[in-house]
Write the C-alpha cells for this entry.
Amino acid sequence: MKKGFSLLAVIFFLAIVLLACGFAVKIVVAQMSSVKDEALRLKTFYAAEGAIEWAKAKVAEEPLWYTDPSHSPQDDIKWLIAGALGYKMSVGGTNCKIIREQGKAIIYAIGYNGADIEGSSAVSIIKVQVSGNPPVQTLWKEL
Amino acid sequence: MKKGFTLIEVLIASTLSVLICAAAYLLVMSFVRAYITIEKNIGRAESSRISLNRIVSDVRGAKMIKANSGASVLVLDLWGKEVSYDLKEGKVRRSVDGASSYLTEAGEVSHLSFSYPSQKLIFIEIASGGKRELVLSTEAFVRN
C-alpha cells in the first residue's frame, strides 16, 4: 500500500460527510423559508379577510359606498394592485387595500406586507359578492 | 516497501475520524432539533388558525355581541345561546351556556384579544405560543 493512502481516505470520507451535512442544512433552510413564507401568507390572508368584514360593515351603514369608478374587465389583478385607488387600512399591523367599484356588488380586499403592494413579498387578494342589507355574501373567491 | 500503516498514520486517521463523526453528529442533531421546532411551529400556527376560523364563524352567525364582552373575553348571543371565548391556561376556551370545551392544547396559543371598532365589528388577534410566535389578526362583522 502506498504511503499517504490513509490521508486520501480521510479526505474522501470528510468530503462525503460534508456533502451529507450540506444537504441536510439545505433542507432545513428551505423548510424554514417555506414556513416563513406561509406565515406571511396567513397574516396577509387574515388581514384581507378582516378588511372584507370591515367593508361589509361599511356597506351595511352606507350601501352606496365605493372607492373607485367602475372598471372593466372584472378581476383585473394588475389594476386592483396598481391602478385602483381603493381604501387603505391596517388590520393588526398588516396593510390592506379595499376596492369597491361604483354601482357594483363586488368587494375586493388585498392584504400585503410592507409599505406598498408591488414591493410586497406576500399578497392575498379576496373577492366577495354581497347583496341586500345587511349585506349577505353570495360569492367568495381567493384570486 | 513497508506493508500496513504506521502508528502515527493510524492515530492521525482515528483522531480525524472521531472529530469528523462528532461534527457530523452535532450537525445532524441541530438539523433534527430545527426540524422538530419547525413542526411544532406549524402545529401551533394551525391551531391558532383553526381557533380564529371558529371564532369568526360564530361572530358572523351571532345575533349580537353581549355587553359583558371585553379585551380578553368575547361573549356572543348566538340565537339564545350564550357563547364565549377566552384564553384559559394557554388554551382557547369556548363556552356554550357555561359548558366549556377547549379548541387548543396548553401552550399552543399565547395571546387572544378582542377589540370593538364599532358596534357590530370585532377585531380579533391571536398569537401562537413558542419562541417564534405567529400573530394573526382579523376582523369579523356581526351581520344579523
User: Anything to note?
Assistant: Helices of chain A lie at 5-61, 77-83. The first helix of chain A runs from residue 5 to 61.
